[in-house]
Every structure is written in C-alpha cells, then in structure tokens.
Specification:
The protein is α/β, with parallel strands linked by helices. Helices cover 45% and strands 12% of the residues. The chain has a five-stranded parallel beta sheet, sandwiched between helices. Strands 1-2 form a two-stranded antiparallel ribbon. Helix 5 links the parallel strand 3 and strand 4. Helix 2 packs across helix 3, helix 5 crosses helix 9 and helix 6 runs parallel beside helix 7.
Length: 239
C-alpha cells in the first residue's frame, strides 16, 4: 500500500483523478451511471476525476469494487521518493473478525459451506434462509439484533420470499447497506444469470462445485481476499 505525505495531497488527487477517469472510460460507464451505482451525484464523481475534491477511503473502495481493480491501482505513478512524512491512509487490522451473513435455504448446502469454512477462526457466521429474513437482518435488525453489521454476504440465488437477484437489487439500492460486498453462491452456471448478478452490483459469483475440495478452495480464496487482500467497507467507511 502506498504511503502518502499530507503536504502532497494535490499531486495525489491528480493521480487518483486521472486513474478514476481512465478506469471509468475503460469500463464504458458514464458519470451518471457511476454516480447511481455508488450513491453520489455525477457532479461529485466529476470533481473527483478533475482533482477538485478530496476523495475518502470509503468512496475509493466502492469505486475499486465497481471498476474491478485493487485500490493500489489508483496510485500508480506516484513516486514514494517524492513524499516526506509518510502517512498510511489505510489501516487494515490483523486478525479482524469477519461478520459473514450467509443466505441459504438448503440445510445440506449450509452444512457443507460451514464445513468448508471451519478452518477460519476469525469468521462470525449467521445463516438466514429466505429473502425476508435477509432484509430483516440488514435493514431492520428485528431478526438476530445482536449480530453485527455484516462485512460480507454470501447470497444464494434460489431462496424463498424474494429470490437472490431481487435481494441483491434491494441491498444495492439502500444507501445504508449498499457498500456491503455480496458474493453469489449458486449451482446455476448460466452466463446470463452471472451477467445479471454483476450488473446489479454483485462483488463475486461462485458456483457450488460438486467437488468438495474445489468448493472449499474457492471459498477459502474468497475469504482470504476479503479479509487480507482488500480493505473491507467496515474498515474503509468514512463519514
């Protein structure tokens, strides 16, 4: 992660702004589309790209997820030698407990998923079994009120009381919870369904392999990515 001097923020903003515009254009997004997806005005996105406004760690994280790149990519081109009094703008705590909300209506699949993740001692898992329970946990806190705000959601597609895609859309429309990464776990290999999930804000799509070791490996890679490789929204949220 880049260490950045406070007295060089103008240079930092220009570099970040250039990368933001390049990555937006590469993905084919308009300013308005980006603004809608992350819950800001298009004027604000434009200000970030033009280096007029400082960008928070939380917003930068959401943009990195939207563009499918690591946060470090926004700092490419900065020379560490040109900065004095380094200040790390991201602090990723070691051994942080990851609060995982699993949405799965099949008891067998729930058991297999828990078994695949049992080696992670930093996971706090809550499993709910339908769409309505999911939103009660996320939005209203009427179900399992002691469970913390999830850091990550594993969402099955085929669940009762609103399917997974509908729940994904509801999550991404709600500004209070839209920053929570949602990873789809499903038996469906349809590329159309996969595209629909990504278009509606999914952060990943994992097919439930019939090979337990392969499924375990996929889930382990996913958890390691969200716990070690990137800054989670719970860490990056600012304001």
């Amino acid at each position: 992660m880049k260490n950045i001097a406070m007295n060089n923020t103008g240079v930092i903003e220009k570099v970040i702004g250039r990368h933001l515009r390049e990555k937006r254009l590469k993905r084919g997004f308009t300013l308005a589309e980006v603004a809608e997806k992350i819950g800001l005005s298009y004027q604000q996105i434009q200000k970030y790209e033009q280096a007029i406004s400082k960008i928070s760690a939380g917003v930068l994280y959401r943009l990195s997820v939207l563009y499918g790149v690591s946060i470090d990519k926004f700092f490419d081109g900065l020379s560490g030698a040109s900065f004095d009094s380094p200040v790390n703008i991201f602090d990723h705590p070691d051994n942080k407990i990851i609060n995982l909300l699993m949405v799965e209506d099949n008891p067998g699949d729930e058991e297999i998923t828990r078994k695949a993740l049992k080696e992670f001692d930093n996971l706090n898992i809550l499993c709910v079994h339908d769409g309505r329970q999911t939103m009660e946990v996320l939005r209203y806190k009427t179900l399992c009120p002691d469970f913390p705000r999830p850091d990550l959601i594993f969402l099955d597609i085929y669940i009762p009381r609103r399917d997974g895609i509908t729940i994904l859309k509801e999550i991404k429309r709600d500004r209070e919870i839209q920053d929570i990464p949602v990873v789809i776990l499903t038996n469906n290999l349809s590329t159309d369904l996969m595209a629909t999930a990504y278009k509606n804000g999914a952060s990943g799509y994992i097919c439930k392999s019939f090979d337990f070791l392969k499924f375990k490996e996929d889930l382990e890679d996913c958890i390691k990515y969200w716990s070690n490789a990137v800054v989670l929204p719970s860490v990056a949220r600012v304001g």
